[in-house]
Design a protein that fits this description.
The chain is of the alpha+beta class. The chain has 2 domains: 2-176, Leucine-rich Repeat Variant, CATH 1.25.10; 186-401. It has helices at 2-5, 10-15, 21-24, 36-53, 69-76, 85-94, 98-110, 116-126, 130-143, 145-153, 161-176, 224-231, 348-351, 356-359, 375-378, and strands spanning 78-79, 186-187, 198-209, 217-222, 233-237, 246-253, 263-274, 280-294, 306-327, 330-345, 366-368, 381-390, 400-401. Helix 8 (116-126) packs antiparallel against helix 9 (130-143) and helix 9 (130-143) packs parallel to helix 11 (161-176). InterPro entries: ARM-like (IPR011989), ARM-type_fold (IPR016024), PBS_lyase_HEAT (IPR004155). This is HEAT repeat-containing protein. It comes from Saccharopolyspora shandongensis.
């Protein structure tokens, strides 16, 4: 959330001239050349951004533009990452762990420094980890403006076609509000549980209530790899026949189980999708799943007791179709983007005085709910952020893979370790800490 507000306030624009679109790209798109739907969406985004930074720019009912809880918290929360700017710049390039390099990049960008785009672009040029590179490009898009477009343009001819396509997509979104893609062919693998398995990039702000008075809040801005390390790498798993009313978000956490197997955590979402445009779907989905809540704040650690609770989560956004990729006589989803929000529990005693390397470990934070007599009073974190996912070429053969990713879920979100479409234990949607899965 907060990084998306950086570099956009009237004060920032006054201090740092954003430059011209003509200088940023060789063929800039004029606003009057955009489609009506694109202009409407961009105008709404413009008004919304202005309302976040200075409500006086927007007339009308404050309930429409001043009710964002995340923004209210962001204005008052203290940073729980207390590294200096110099330390962040150094670790963004020198830390041996790619997740920590990426975390330093996103934290630096979230602090709204003038040289953030240049730092991110340098990391995208030089980092040896593929995901650090495309996540750095995403952070550049979040900062926005002509400077961001100019920086992203450098990667349009990158040797890695995924980096080049992400750059093309981000530039198009900044100019028109809509994504753009390259011309690679797509490959659908039949007889898989899901028609598509879309790898998700997720960035979130974690706001933690530091005392019962509700007057002290802390904040951690989690970059995609850091979030995946704690809560699990997520894949969106739609099927053409049901994607407008339900889908599974399948998550796996590596390094949590002692035997080396992935910890599986699946969420069945249901909701509404607007299909008034044939090239996309606008959706609002919710999930409510039974989970073992660990009072220790560490997944799979029952040392302080457990509680069975129903955990809710919401996600909403837009998916864009690719007519060239056909699945069951329908266009496949090429790209999805949106926002999400939910609740969590962070045991503050587990993170107090520890380095970020000790905090960003598998399972060190659990999702929570307010609607349980035991779990509700322990809930102390508000989680919200944005996500993006597109189809990628995972095996390097030059063809986009629609559903090649391994996800351990049935169509109803039950654990399915052998991916045969049949639940290993009917009704079980998350690895059971009391027994090893097959």
């Amino acid at each position: 959330m907060a990084i998306d507000l950086c570099n956009k306030s009237p004060g920032a624009l006054a201090e740092r001239h954003p430059g011209s679109w003509d200088a940023a790209v060789p063929d800039p798109k004029a606003l009057e050349d955009l489609a009506t739907e694109q202009k409407d969406a961009l105008n709404f985004a413009y008004r919304t951004t202005l309302s976040n930074v200075d409500p006086r720019f927007v007339a009308g009912d404050p309930a429409a533009w001043a009710s964002d809880f995340g923004y209210a918290l962001d204005r008052v929360a203290i940073r729980l990452d207390n590294r200096s700017n110099e330390q962040l710049r150094e670790q963004a390039f020198q830390h041996p762990d790619p997740a920590m390099r990426e975390q330093a990049l996103f934290e630096y960008a979230d602090r709204d420094h003038e040289d953030a785009v240049a730092l991110l672009a340098e990391a995208a040029r030089t980092d040896r980890d593929r995901q650090v590179r495309w996540d750095a490009l995403w952070a550049i898009e979040k900062l926005g403006g002509p400077t961001a477009i100019a920086a992203l343009g450098e990667f349009l001819t990158d040797d890695d076609p995924e980096i080049a396509e992400w750059a093309k997509l981000f530039i198009s979104e900044l100019q028109t509000g809509d994504p753009a893609f390259d011309g690679r062919a797509g490959l659908y693998t039949p007889d898989r549980t899901f028609d598509e398995t879309i790898f998700l990039l997720i960035h979130c702000d974690l706001y933690v209530r530091l005392d019962p008075s509700n007057t002290h809040w802390g904040k951690i801005s989690l970059a995609p790899q850091g979030l995946a390390r704690i809560y699990g790498q997520a894949h969106a798993c739609p099927n053409v026949a049901t994607r407008e009313k339900q889908l599974v978000i399948a998550k796996t956490i590596d390094g949590l189980h002692q035997d080396g197997s992935p910890h599986c955590d699946n969420y069945l979402f249901r909701g509404f999708t607007d299909r008034t445009r044939r090239d996309r779907g606008n959706f609002f989905f919710e999930s409510l799943v039974p989970r073992t809540f660990f009072k220790s704040g560490q997944a799979d650690d029952p040392s302080q007791g457990v509680r069975q609770a129903n955990i809710g989560f919401a996600r909403y956004g837009t998916w864009h179709l690719e007519p060239r990729f056909q699945v069951r006589q329908e266009a496949a989803i090429r790209y999805v983007r949106g926002r999400f929000q939910g609740w969590g529990y962070v045991d503050l005693s587990r993170i107090a005085g520890k380095s970020l390397e000790e905090v960003l470990v598998p399972g060190n934070g659990v999702l929570s709910t307010l609607h349980d007599p035991e779990v509700g009073p322990m809930t102390n974190a508000f989680i919200l952020g944005t996500f993006k996912g597109k189809l990628n070429d995972w095996d390097g053969d030059g063809v986009i893979d629609l559903n090649s990713r391994d996800v351990y879920s049935t169509v109803d979100g039950e654990i399915d370790m052998d991916q045969d479409g049949v639940a290993d234990r009917p009704g079980l949607t998350c690895c059971d800490h009391t027994a090893l899965m097959p």
